[in-house]
Request: fold
Amino acid sequence: MKIRRGWALGAIALLITLLLPLVLSAPLLSLPTEVFIFAVFAMSYDLIFGYTGLISFGQALFVGSGGYALAVATGQHGLPLWLGLVTAAGIGLALALITGMLALRTRGVYFAMVTLAFAQAAVTFAGNDIGNLTGGTNGETVNNLPNWLVAPGNEMHLYYVTLGFLVAAFLLLRLLVSSPGGRVWQAIRENEGRARMLGYRPYPYKLAAYAVSGTVCGLAGGMYAIYIGYVSTDNLSAGITIQLLLMVIIGGAGSLWGAVAGAGVLEYANHYLNQLPGSGLLSHFPIWVQNTAGQPLLILGIIYLGLIYFFPEGIAGLLQKHAPWLSGGRAIPGIESSPGTPAASTQPPPNLAEHLEGG
Reply:
């Protein structure tokens, strides 16, 4: 019954987003479209961080490589859009398998540093335009896209395409984390040694989670390239990974819908805080208030510290305490193990420090 109520609320939220373009003008659809894409990024990161217990600092590798793959496929080789997206997903999968097979030989902070090194190597590769594929520091423009999707006045079409992408990604990842293999991921997160004692080999399960995460993130990277119209080394920067990490922590690690909520909160906060200094709303406040408002990163940092201090388990954890029937989307509470799979613990996900310590 609890899970049914959660799905009912999800259906209501979906209905609202489907009707939103009827009341918003085309320019106002841009921000929710971006939120949908970053929500998929956040869910892909939550798969390895919140569900499997892997802290990666290189998730931007898949964001940027997916975007570059689509730009090269459609622009330089003239492939249709659907093949460009398949290429983006394929590149994400290939890079995840290659880098994962190496990085997953390490644990904790060493794994985080190795993934960061791979992402930084990709920044160097793209910045030097090796193979004339990336456009160097100028980036690569995404060309040969269908007009029905990107032409001025068709913002509603892109809105619905990204919304459909978000729903499909959510359902796929929800199916995976609820499967017997998904419960093994959660068991590895809780106690890798105990999972090994039960007869499970953590390495292939972690590699599978990393590969799925890279594939979904690469595909989302292609969608993001369509949205912004170009790809640059900024798509590969560590700042993207940190942004995804914040989304997952704010939303609640180990909750797919929490990752979606965290993406919405961070994207909207970032958007309106950047607009605040020039809005005129602070003209009657003291200069020091206006100067502080002109530093959106500072304000975001204060908000983030407040959320972590008062709500350490994120939005999902907060609602779980006050409305437990919403916990159908959580990874840990209320999960029963299938025959032959270890049961997930009822403890909250380990914090960031424990991940970095290799726990």
